[in-house]
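Homework-ish question, so no full write-ups if that breaks the rules, but can someone show me the predicted structure for this set?
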Amino acid sequence: MKPFQAPIEDILFSLNHVAGANGLATWDAEFAAEIGGHFAAFAEGEIAPLDEPGDLQGCRLENGRVSMPDGFAEVYRAYAEQGWPSLTVPEEYGGQGMGGLIHAITSEVFSGANHSLQMVTGLVPGAVRTILRFGTDDQKARYIPPLTSGETLATMCLTEPGAGSDLSRVRCKAEPSKKGWSITGEKIFISGGDQDLSERILHLVLARTSDDGIKGLSLFLCPCTRTDGSRNSVTITRIEEKMGLHASPTCQMAFDGAEAELIGEEGKGLAAMFTMMNHARADVALQGVAHAARACDIASAYAAERTQGRGPDGAPITLDGHADVRRMLTEIDRLAVGGRAISHLAFVLMEQGGNSELVDFLTPVAKVFCTEAGMRGAELGMQVLGGYGYLKEYRLEQTYRDCRITAIYEGANGIHERVLATRLAPGHPGDAFAAFVEAELASHPGTRIENALTEWKASRQQLQEAPDASILAHGFMQQTIDTLLACVWARIAWVADEHPNPARMKRLCDR
Amino acid sequence: MKPFQAPIEDILFSLNHVAGANGLATWDAEFAAEIGGHFAAFAEGEIAPLDEPGDLQGCRLENGRVSMPDGFAEVYRAYAEQGWPSLTVPEEYGGQGMGGLIHAITSEVFSGANHSLQMVTGLVPGAVRTILRFGTDDQKARYIPPLTSGETLATMCLTEPGAGSDLSRVRCKAEPSKKGWSITGEKIFISGGDQDLSERILHLVLARTSDDGIKGLSLFLCPCTRTDGSRNSVTITRIEEKMGLHASPTCQMAFDGAEAELIGEEGKGLAAMFTMMNHARADVALQGVAHAARACDIASAYAAERTQGRGPDGAPITLDGHADVRRMLTEIDRLAVGGRAISHLAFVLMEQGGNSELVDFLTPVAKVFCTEAGMRGAELGMQVLGGYGYLKEYRLEQTYRDCRITAIYEGANGIHERVLATRLAPGHPGDAFAAFVEAELASHPGTRIENALTEWKASRQQLQEAPDASILAHGFMQQTIDTLLACVWARIAWVADEHPNPARMKRLCDR
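A: Not a homework solution, just the prediction itself:
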């Protein structure tokens, strides 16, 4: 099997030159490369080697506590000691105060090395951001430093047995108590609901404070330990048996009068939760990119080594000498590079600030395209390996199983398509996207963007006039992706020479 | 989890009315329905319940012998006792002498119920066909009756570590010996290379009788037991750890001077083997159809029960009330119904005899489309179930894992695409296909077939003029599939009223 290799050159090229981080005043490309290199070395050397054994061993629930696979606690300790959880936290809370773009580097590398561990640790930045935005000064002072040091990990407790995509059905109840609030109810599909990595866990729980549908939902901070130091009334009732991500414990949890404190305003829990979810969604897009990149790496290495068939001169050739295999390898590479560029574009816009409508528009597009890129990349990669790809030995089958969830969680892709078609595209965020593509066309004139834009506008018009736009949602998302990709490939063609391997980038653009 | 339900009504409709079995003199539709109903009941009641436990338990290799999961031996005994292996074997060898179309019914149902067990038992009809065609009378008399009774199961031993898609690299050697031939070498990826279901196993082995590339390959019958009753020198050296099909032992085998007899002419092993492989390929197409149909069944049942979200009037609705979910369910249904129709078309042509060039043309098209239909159907089905789809509990994840191999084995899909583009389409089989589509257009006039045919002809022309047609192979296959599907949906629209649920068929055609 091919050891994990972080695609750090591709990532830096994409961020700096394609997505335009280089143009930001706050961005130090050399420093980013250094940090990225450090994290890549750590991920390759220590995190990735646990990916396969973690998949085989899985998590266990014993006496109400979850055990992670062997070695995970040790590597998490090193991760915390090296200060990785603190990267983007403001300095006043013990963080290193780096911009969010650094996170785009480490998050993708982490997911490629070990998606399961990334999931269990990956909600911290979103939790910090939520507390920074909605918490009181006292809450910030109490909760952020332990998240920064790695002492505490965070969870996001939304889903319930009857409430998946439709959060208005949340029944978990929060009632005022002597010590603040008391939460009672059941949550399911909670990643890292328990684990033995961090000393403490902070649950961000969406619970009902009144019967008023979505408006009756509030967000709570619910630590695993009460203020008096005793264990809070939060129980893990089971961990799910899944197709993949066996090293990420997916917990069913019972809150039985658990002590909690409100964060943000009562009845505005969904808005607060979305701060966390939007962060998680950007991460999920990068997970898709990471899987496509990993599939590309494994398949390319295999195809370059495996001799099979003969060339036009009758001499034996390697797999990558066959037109069909080359087509598949190029396609996987395009999925990874194209998806990454779309993700990075959104990250750079977020960092710039100011065009939040375009960010809103791009977030679901990146989530859908990148997660599909991961699935399609893993599928094609497995096809390149043939029968060997179906074996556990070559690891692509783990990529294939692990990446499948990305199209489902953090909003099923169909939900994102509907949001795009019914809420974002018809209004101002749609205008922002049209303006973005027009600007791209002005910078990189060409019929591909021009035609895509004309068709996209016509479809948007249709959408605005349709009695039920949700029927058009799937097709509209695909068209939006095509339009965005036309821009992205034009940008990549423009800056291909900045890549250490310009010929590869040009070949990808040429398709 | 939803118990397996054989889509017997859809199968009979497709065979009889869409593929035109009803027009064959040798076909007794009522009798076929009766046999199909019996097998469906057996599959639903006895075979399918072993599918999940078989996946969880898997196969074991102990002391050189393979153990199948619990219960598999018992259900195989019942299968043999009820005479299922004998269905299509001529009566003179103890069979029931039914036409090959019956096999299209039972094979799909079997794969839907338990793909693993179907694989281990499914090579018998192909082995019988190969022996009937290439064996001596003596070989027929000795080998066919035990295959018919179920006493013997068959394997197909082609692949070697260095010889996957490129069989010219086969190194396994056959040398004349006192008792016939002696085979020495290694084979990998042999389904059912050993098992504890049948008393005996007959290996059909492709081995080298001279150094002359493909022309140096011959086919051998290599029973697990020597003529003197001792165990033949065939050893299972390992069974593979795979992503799915855990109840199908994929064996690595060592032949160490194994006693064998030549079947057919020396140096013409590949042609003989292709008789078996073509049969296996038709079966693989049905496996894809079976998985798509199973995914459709599970997802439809779930979507009809699960309440989520609200309708335009504000009242809670089930998942299948959402436009996006309906789109996915319809798509899965179309994949299953469309794929089945293409498969059945080829089966009916085979049964008719006479147009072997069209059969040659359709075989790779059916293999590619139906296996992709299985993968896509499983993917969409899982998406409908959301997070629950990713759990082992709802079983779609097994469908997702099991069906993945179908696009790889029996000729990777890319190989079939190349064969179509470089060998079949440019020549007479391409003419046969064009004539078929023209006839379909004459019977069902419409712009969809007309446009598809015009474009297909233009692409074929391009193919014939291209210096290297293999570069165009993937796109050409997709276009051929689209053209064929246009014909198939026109046929289905024409006969929709013959289906027990005509509204469903019409809805599928309307898309």
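Now go work out the reasoning yourself. Hint: Residues 269-305 of chain B form the longest helix (37 residues).
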